[in-house]
Amino acid sequence: MMLSEGNQSIIPTFTPLGFSEYPDLQVPLFLVFLSVYTVTVVGNLGVMITIRINSKLHTIMYFFLSHLSFVDFCCSTTVTPKLLENLIVEDRTISFFGCITQFCFACIFGVTETFLLASMAYDRFVAVHNPLLYSTAMSQKLCVLLVAGSYSWGIVCSLTLTYFLLALSYHESNIMNNFICDHSVIVSVSCSDPYISEILCFIIAVFNEACSLMIILTSYILIFITVMRMPSASGRQKTFSTCASHLTAITIFHGTILFLYCIPNPKNSWLTVKVASVFYTVVIPMLNPLIYSLRNKDVKITFRRLVVTKFLHHSM
């Protein structure tokens, strides 16, 4: 059972240490993470609102981008508020169900983002390889299925891993050497054998990475071949520029995932794991809207108009 050793009436609690070993950095870290979270919320909500109000952005590419912004916003909101709280309060305790819930939602949004990025790569391939048949090949029904499939698979993976975490036993009080209720951290404090849960997590992570990266790499290899056959240098430059934002987001996201879950390394210190976890759950959701909006003229123009309109409205 998920309850503690032999006493079915006691529900375990978890205490994430976070960055408590650096007491002098608690306030500076709070200010940094608060700033990052503010930019994350404003950036991702800004992208979603911008896409919604500008009819020129009602295209397939921006349909995927709006869902990516939603997932990033949800992922950061699942983790960052509790991280901020733990940096300024003495009692860092989180309930068992609170910890499991945080892991469950973080896993859903993490897996969903993995396959959203793969769907976006396929979308770019179709747009570059056969632009005349693009609207037919990337129909609205297919796009909805790709997005719905990403969310659905994220839910399946999360519920599967959560079930096996609930099957483990825990002490009444558990100290976690991280700031987030990550799978590896939860199983590390279990008082029963977590072998099956760990193997399952590794298999799911490798399967998701292998499938998504195969789609991404195949798409971009074919994109590169198509682009190099273009007679116009300006056409090649424009195409590469369009794909650059997506490639940047993919590199940052998958590089962190591979480091955390798919390349087991016992030499990695807990501090290294914490920093990587911060990057994955806090920093990347902030970077994605910046990466896409800073390189996109239509998004920047619409966002500026939105900000100016709101500013003038409040000034009058």
Structure, described:
- The chain is mainly alpha-helical and 316 residues long.
- The termini are far apart.
- Helix content is 75%, strand content 3%.
- It has one domain (13-315): Rhodopsin 7-helix transmembrane proteins (Rhopdopsin 7-helix transmembrane proteins), CATH 1.20.1070.10.
- It has 10 helices and 3 strands, in the order E-H-H-E-H-H-H-E-H-H-H-H-H.
- It is globular.
- It has a 3-stranded mixed beta sheet.
- The relative contact order is 0.15.
- The mean pLDDT is 83.
Helix content: over 70%
Provide the number of structural domains.
Answer: 1
- CATH architectural group: Up-down Bundle
Beta content comes to under 5%
- Taken in chain order, the helices and strands follow as EHHEHHHEHHHHH
CATH-assigned homologous superfamily: Rhodopsin 7-helix transmembrane proteins
Uncertain stretches of 5 or more adjacent residues: none
